[in-house]
Design brief:
alpha/beta, five-stranded parallel β-sheet, 5 strands
Length: 302
């Protein structure tokens, strides 16, 4: 588990300036050194100025350098016993011939956890707010994806429908192009692509943007082709997984979907809770009462 300082830095990381991110990166990679460093020494080690360090800390919610150091030293001290007992963390996952079945659950969980933490680190709160506002106010929402990203697309479709929002998702490329070409100002198009290079998804987002829709891209790489046609770009990470793409790409995408879903609910809590309650009632009517069994067919007596 990450300590509170790490979580606080990662939560605000996406909104930091480039130079401020350098200071934040140094702290994340050198926690113990930072705890014992003066502000001038830390700034020099991070290759930034002292004012940059202070701006970074205040942007993350610290009152100043003393507040940051006091909290960091206290957290490191309280974590020492746990640190001694914990296993060495995995910073990557490679399936080798000698890997045993007993090792896989822990390795997979650690890799997934790291990817989700990277996603938090790359999320800009300002961008997140824009995406939530765009979806909840859009006249219509079209979702586009191919292959593995279809899992996240289907999940986003289901969640938006639960909230009563006008949305649709086509897996067929030709339907995607037709729907994108018929969008206009006030509509939203969401393209989901791990690599950001899936030609069908990139092309349909280009069509949607040209038609006047507000485009939201969810991808792993900020400099990928899909970013050229994104009014709102949400990046999950910058890590590259090759054979693991089909497995690991889904987890941060689904996390983003859940973030958007919860953000929309929070934007008008009373309204969306009523809609969800109404939907739950309809679903409940299609379920068997608790403890009831399906009526068994009568057996004919020969």
């Amino acid at each position: 588990m990450k300590n509170g300082i790490t979580k606080q830095i990662m939560a605000g990381y996406g909104d930091l300036r480039k130079s401020e991110k350098k200071a934040a990166d140094y702290i994340l990679d050198h926690m113990e050194d930072a705890a014992g460093a003066s502000i001038d020494r830390l700034a020099k080690a991070a290759d930034v100025s002292q004012p940059t360090v202070l701006r970074m800390l205040r942007a993350l919610g610290f009152t100043g350098y003393k507040d940051f150091k006091y909290r960091l030293v206290a957290e490191l001290a309280s974590a020492e016993p746990e640190k001694a007992r914990s296993a060495v963390p995995m910073y990557g996952y490679t399936l080798r011939e000698e890997t045993t079945l007993d090792e896989i659950p822990a390795y997979m969980t650690e890799t997934a956890s790291r990817m989700l933490e990277e996603t938090l680190k790359n999320i800009s709160i300002k961008t997140y707010r824009k995406a939530v506002d765009t979806l909840r106010t859009a006249k219509s929402i079209n979702i586009y994806s191919v292959e593995n990203s279809g899992v996240a697309a289907q999940d986003l479709l289901a969640k938006l429908l639960y909230l009563g929002l006008p949305c649709r998702y086509f897996s067929d490329y030709y339907y995607q192009q037709i729907s994108a070409g018929n969008l206009s100002e006030g509509d939203a198009a969401v393209g989901i692509s791990y690599s950001g290079e899936s030609k069908d998804t990139v092309d349909v987002m280009k069509t949607a943007k040209k038609a006047g829709a507000t485009t939201i891209a969810i991808t792993n790489f900020k400099d990928s082709p899909i970013s050229r046609y994104a009014d709102i770009l949400i990046c999950t990470s910058q890590e590259q997984f090759i054979y693991g793409n089909a497995i690991f790409s889904r987890m941060p995408q689904l996390l983003i979907v859940d973030m958007l879903y919860m953000g929309i609910i929070a934007s008008d809590y009373d309204r969306y809770v009523k809609i969800l309650d109404r939907g739950e009632k309809m679903v409940r009517e299609r379920a068997y009462p608790s403890g009831a069994e399906e009526e068994k067919p009568h057996r004919k007596i020969p």
